[in-house]
Known about the structure:
The chain has helices at residues 23-29, 33-43, 50-68, 74-113, 131-164, 182-193, and strands at 15-18, 173-176. The protein is mainly alpha-helical. The protein has one domain (16-171). 25% of the residues are buried.
Amino acid sequence: MAKTAQSPRQTPRVVQLRKGVNLEMVRLCCPDASQATLISESFGLALLDSDGIRDLHERLIVETADSLNEGLGERAMQIHLQRVVGAYVGSAHGAGQFYSRAVTEARDMTAKAANEIRDEDLDGPVGFDSAAQRKREFAADMALQSHALRMAAEGAVAGYEQVVGEKWKPFERHIENPGQSIDRKAAELQMSAFG
Length: 195
């Protein structure tokens, strides 16, 4: 008995959005100005000029737009600045996540060091910091770095709003058929040729 040619089964087209990082996500994982100041004072680190960093990056976006004004149309300017600001926000978010992991490691190491039975967590020779102290100092450094990048991102977002006239929001990329690789798509097309 001969088989009749069947058309390949059409799968429904699923379109998902790949969510971008927004400023609220940055604020959740990066220290604010008062926490950064407290960390600086507690660890003897330099105090950051949070407002200065924010203002400088706001001016940077505005001046960038002014210099490109003749060469870019309104929509092109918006797309360009959206990408530039997205880079600042993404960088701050990445630094904030790294800072959060550093704090977790410092807490874990400090809790282990409080257990006097464990030899590997005891302080090193005189003049050397303990492993827990080094983890705490590293976390403090990461706090200031992520705070500085948060302020840069906040300034860039404010500059975007000033230039474009609307709030910045992350670009959301549409994903077609997530989880299906190009090889699989090619194989399906090739197999459909056989009928």
